[in-house]
Structure to design on (101 residues):
């Protein structure tokens, strides 16, 4: 097994919360170092989707059987994860599919 480190590109977030994507503002960090933040963002998004699906009432014989959401995760340079629309700017594109049991 290789000792290589997988790196992920990060973006700077200004005080207004806007992403700065100029090439001079781009940096990289070890993916492993950001693992917990990435997992927490996906878990939170999944919990929100599951709660929304659970609250969706059956209407006239119809029910929500499957709910799918796709979103981007952008890793901020200082700390934190920005959940955004899936796009070329996102570090990761995540699709979560929830089905009724």
């Amino acid at each position: 097994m290789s000792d290589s480190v997988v790196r992920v590109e990060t973006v700077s977030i200004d005080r207004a919360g806007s992403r700065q994507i100029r090439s001079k503002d781009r940096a990289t960090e070890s993916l492993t170092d950001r693992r917990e933040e990435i997992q927490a963002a996906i878990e939170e998004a999944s919990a929100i989707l599951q709660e929304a699906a659970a609250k969706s009432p059956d209407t006239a014989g119809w029910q929500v059987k499957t709910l799918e959401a796709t979103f981007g995760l952008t890793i901020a340079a200082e700390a934190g994860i920005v959940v955004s629309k899936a796009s070329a700017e996102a570090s990761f594109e995540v699709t979560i599919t929830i089905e009724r049991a």
Observations:
- The helical segments are 35-55.
- The chain has a mean pLDDT of 78.
- The chain has one domain: 7-99.
- The beta strands are 7-10, 12-13, 19-20, 27-30, 66-75, 81-84, 92-99.
